[in-house]
Amino acid sequence: MHRPFDTAAQSQRFSQPSIGAAGPAFGAAFSAGIGAVNGSALRDMLRMAQVPGMVNFGGGLPAPDLFPMDRIAQASARALEQYGWRAVQYGTTEGFLPLREWLAAYTCPGMGGVTPEHIQIMTGGQQSLDLIAKIFIDPGDTVLLETPTYMGAVQSFTPYRPNFAAVPTDEHGIDMDALEALLRDLAMQGRTPKFIYTIPNFQNPTGRTLSLERRERLLDLTTQYGVFVVEDDPYGQLRFSGDDLPSLAELMLRRTGGNPDRSHVVYCSSFSKTLAPGLRDAWVMAARPITDKLVLAKQGADMHTPTLNQMIVTELLPLLPEQVDKLRHSYAARARHMLAALDRELPPGVSRTTPEGGMFLWLTLPEQVSTTAMLPRAVERRVAYMIGECFHALGGGHNTMRLCFSTAGPEDIDRGITALAQTIREELAGEVDTRS
Ligand SMILES: Cc1ncc(COP(=O)(O)O)c(C=O)c1O
């Protein structure tokens, strides 16, 4: 008969190493998944931004001077008054129904097939990425990343132990010939990637936008090879030049006759960049089998997104068009100012992207410069940027950087870009190969 706690000898045989005076062996205790996650460059950037006089183009924060503070205060008061205790009681995992109803109509306008069942409210777009990874990735699965990509996505996916494969991009987004070649190669090895992660609009970090022709081709290829598409679109509303393009989700819905349950696109967006990031309100629109699994994953993560915050956002929805307009105008002016300063100041050999919206642009320096090695010298001159290497999960990008134009005023932009250009010129004049 099996007796689990039998003799002293048995318990000794199965005993764990004890915790000594120095405390637990932390290193050995953590999972391989979290062990694979790199330190957050974002945290380092936030620390750097504290230095007085620093012009920080590194941090990717929305402009705090544009948060609709009065309207948020009124919306909070109204939500509490209207819903009383319901505003602070547990809510449903799927999210606040009036908000999901609104989002079902808003996410792909004119597509009647989208219902609240296809909308899952999330605690920030970051949670969407984590829970998508949780429901899709088994250790060893292949996940395709357009490269460079949002480092927060890599951070969310990594603990689930995928094998990443990098898909190259150019000024119009993902290089579709390269993607096709990669999918063909993987198919020959018997590997079907679980999904491709892409940010088609005003990409973080490059500011680039995927062309319409390439959107259609991405859907053709992923349909042909059976690969889900995770479309991350937190910046799509923030277009300040050029024409709006339909999302991958919308294009796919057109192909399925408006039936979201036949779509392989998982669409993610967020109110962080249009209202305020601290509200932590975002959503996923996807086929029912996917939202059903996301509900399970979210129950185990945080049960639901804070009810009051969802109610506040719902109260703010009528303000959204006006607020988005304000952001577009302001970010357009800041981007224009930064682009003009860059064109005036940068030495030859440095190229930049021209964003049509969003918050970011991307610089590529001559090959011999490492932006990582150069950063302390830029910081001495009181300017900071985000190093390009941290957007390359599989290495590369040593001579690139991301600049964020959403928060700095014109004087700071001028001062920061002058300091940055001086640092780059010095780096080039020194002709030191700073890669190593
Ligand atoms: C591409 C992308 N996805 C997701 C997020 C996460 O945003 P949030 O969690 O605030 O919605 C960000 C934030 O910067 C982002 O740039």
Automatic annotation (TrEMBL):
Keywords assigned: Aminotransferase, Pyridoxal phosphate, Transferase
Entry-linked InterPro entries: Aminotransferase_I/II_large (IPR004839), Class-I_PLP-dep_aminotransf (IPR050859), PyrdxlP-dep_Trfase (IPR015424), PyrdxlP-dep_Trfase_major (IPR015421), PyrdxlP-dep_Trfase_small (IPR015422)
Cofactor(s) listed: pyridoxal 5'-phosphate
Gene3D superfamilies membership: Aspartate Aminotransferase, domain 1 (3.90.1150.10), Type I PLP-dependent aspartate aminotransferase-like (Major domain) (3.40.640.10)
Single Gene Ontology MF annotation: transaminase activity
Domain Aminotransferase class I/classII large residue range list: 56-420
Protein name, as recorded: 2-aminoadipate aminotransferase
Native organism: Deinococcus piscis
